[in-house]
Design a protein that fits this description.
heterodimer; A: alpha+beta; B: Rossmann fold; six-stranded mixed beta sheet; four-stranded antiparallel beta sheet; globular; disordered C terminus
Chain lengths: 365, 231
């Protein structure tokens, strides 16, 4: 990198300009990845934080894809799941987005109804009792409610029993936890018959059951079971949102490779005279390629590092209302992807070095 | 080591036909001497120099340095590059210095190309810059040097690797007569000191008063009337 490093210092303006472009693209990609993770969490954390590994849906049509808004499970179904060999627990879970009203304000929340003694509620103080509601911190903030306050939920009035240990949300609304009986008044699904809907889904812990057993149980009980991670797609807002944002990230990654490739194409063409001279002086093609790729690597690593740091710093300054989640997966992974794709772009561009004829050095410049 | 070109022919494709740029040329340049290659434009001087430098493969014939055959019609690009790096110094028609490197770094680059620490060549590089009269400008980049200073740095660069052969293409084309003569004097003097077999391609015989031999090319061949100049 003898010549490459000196070129970086000498042609400072050009390289600074290119670095700024890389910094901005990196900021966009990592910020978008963090925003995607944040929106995903706002949309699905009530599902992904469940202490279960699978979710059983009961859809109106046998071929319907699982959806929380359309699924209805009966008492027969969840009790049937509880009897499947290898299933450690089967908890009915009601899911209904509704309007909540406290003394001072109203807010949209998602009410999750659970059976007595269920472990699904992230509340270490106790179980949810009839006539009470456990608010997540987000719901408590949105409703400006505290322990002992009364909250109107779907027409019924519930007393706030406590604030949950974890903040969870569903389809961008904060979660509140009620008993299944109270939830049924909100979800309008209550009925006495064993084949009438009692909840939305069944949350399963299936560590002892293999796939064949689960498939047989699905066929017998008329349900569709998916993993907790796949259940995110059953949240109506998640799939479209996630696909759109991920597509934008993919486009940005491709654009960054093209931009870096275009820069190094122009740069290589502009220095083809120097390359011919270096070849005439005895520089091997391998030496020149290493030199050029090393230069691209310095530019990329520097620009991507600054861009990633900007995202981390920017995210810490944003108000809590902006749902960004900064983790290694949302910053380092896209950063490494940007460097690798940038190197591919640069590699394709500097490959033209192999075609430069050292004989050209004899021509006067 | 002597430079010897034997039965060298260079034929280029030219549209649907071929063009013979060098036709069956024999030339020997003894170590430590300078041979000037004269002739009108299109005579084949630069083509012969390109073959001698391994920048172009001969269609026929061989180039030897001392006892070693270095370039033949089958020499690969990588082999030719290695020979240029280790055994040949090149001075181009224009200085062709790298814009981002200082005068000293232009010379130290040779060590880096050979896989050594650039600073290992610093004493030799400074000695040569001193010999060509630009040691005071060692820290300057090409844009900060005059045309003559750049040409001198290029000559020092060609000699920094202690080449056995020095090939110089039209070194005086951009200089007036007085400066051109001084540059040729410098090259011939350094050739004698370093023992390099040196070929200078030129179209201006008036600046070549210090060369050891003059060879004239015409229509791709060396004229029979070539003579040894008095030095």
């Amino acid at each position: 990198m003898y010549v490459a490093l000196r070129d970086l210092a000498h042609a400072r303006g050009r390289f600074v300009l290119m670095s700024v472009v890389i910094v901005l693209i990196t900021f966009l990609v990592t910020f978008l990845a963090s925003l995607t993770a944040g929106l995903t969490r706002e949309s699905t954390s009530a599902v992904t934080d469940l202490p279960s590994d699978r979710i059983a849906f009961s859809m109106p049509g046998a071929d319907d894809a699982p959806e929380f808004t359309a699924s209805r499970v009966t008492a027969d179904q969840w009790e049937g799941w509880a009897r499947v060999p290898g299933v450690e627990s089967a908890d009915p879970l009601g899911v209904a987005t509704t309007r909540a009203e406290s003394a001072g304000t109203t807010a949209s929340v998602t009410a999750l109804g659970v059976a007595d003694g269920s472990d699904l509620v992230p509340w270490s103080t106790g179980d949810v009792a009839p006539g009470t509601v456990v608010l997540t911190p987000g719901a408590a903030g949105a409703l400006d409610a505290q322990n002992g306050d009364t909250v109107a939920l779907g027409g019924g009035e519930l007393v706030v029993a406590g604030i949950a240990d974890a903040d969870e949300s569903f389809s961008h609304t904060p979660v509140v936890w009620t008993t299944l009986d109270d939830w049924q008044t909100i979800g309008a699904r209550g009925a006495d018959a064993s084949d009438a809907p009692v909840a939305t889904v069944v949350a399963l812990t299936t560590t002892g059951a293999d796939g064949a057993i689960l498939a047989d149980a699905d066929a017998e009980l008329g349900t569709t079971t998916v993993t907790r991670s796949d259940a995110r797609s059953a949240v109506s807002s998640f799939a479209g949102e996630n696909t759109s944002l991920t597509t934008m990230q993919a486009f940005l990654l491709v654009i960054s490779a093209l931009v870096v490739g275009a820069f190094f194409t122009v740069w290589t063409i502009s220095r083809s005279g120097d390359v011919a001279v270096l070849k005439a002086l005895g520089a091997s093609t391998g030496y020149l390629l290493r030199d050029a790729l090393g230069q691209a690597a310095v530019l990329l690593v520097g620009g991507v590092a600054v861009g990633t740091a900007l995202t981390v710093a920017g995210a810490s300054l944003l108000p809590a209302a902006v749902p960004v989640v900064v983790t290694a997966a949302t910053t380092l992974v896209p950063a490494v992807g940007l460097v690798l794709l940038g190197l591919v772009g640069a590699g394709v561009s500097v490959a033209r070095i192999t075609r430069i004829d050292p004989h050209a050095a004899l021509a006067a410049r | 080591m002597d430079l010897h070109l034997q039965d060298v022919t260079l034929v280029y494709p030219d549209g649907g036909t071929t063009l013979t740029a060098v036709d069956d040329v024999d030339l020997t340049v003894p170590a430590g001497t300078t041979t000037a290659l004269l002739g009108p434009s299109g005579a084949g001087k630069s083509s012969l120099l390109a073959v001698a430098a391994g920048l172009t493969r001969p269609s026929h014939g061989t180039v030897t340095i001392g006892p070693d055959v270095v370039f033949t019609p089958t020499t690969t690009l990588a082999q030719a590059t290695r020979v240029r790096l280790e055994r040949i110094g090149l001075v181009f028609q224009s200085p062709q210095l790298l814009g981002s490197l200082t005068a000293l770094e232009q010379l130290e680059l040779h060590a880096h190309l050979r896989g050594r620490r650039p600073s290992s060549l610093r004493p030799r590089a400074m000695e040569l810059l001193d010999a060509v009269g630009v040691a005071d400008h060692a820290g300057k980049r090409p844009a900060q040097l005059s045309g003559g200073q750049r040409q001198r740095v290029a000559i020092a660069r060609a000699l920094v690797g202690r080449p056995e052969v020095l090939l110089v293409d039209e070194p005086t084309s951009a200089l007036d007569h007085e400066r051109g003569t001084r540059v040729v004097e410098l090259i011939t003097g350094l050739a004698r000191e370093t023992g390099a077999a040196t070929v200078i391609v030129s179209h201006d015989a008036s600046t070549l008063t210090t060369v050891d031999a003059t060879v004239r090319m015409l229509d791709a061949r060396i004229e029979p009337a070539a003579h040894l100049a008095t030095s």
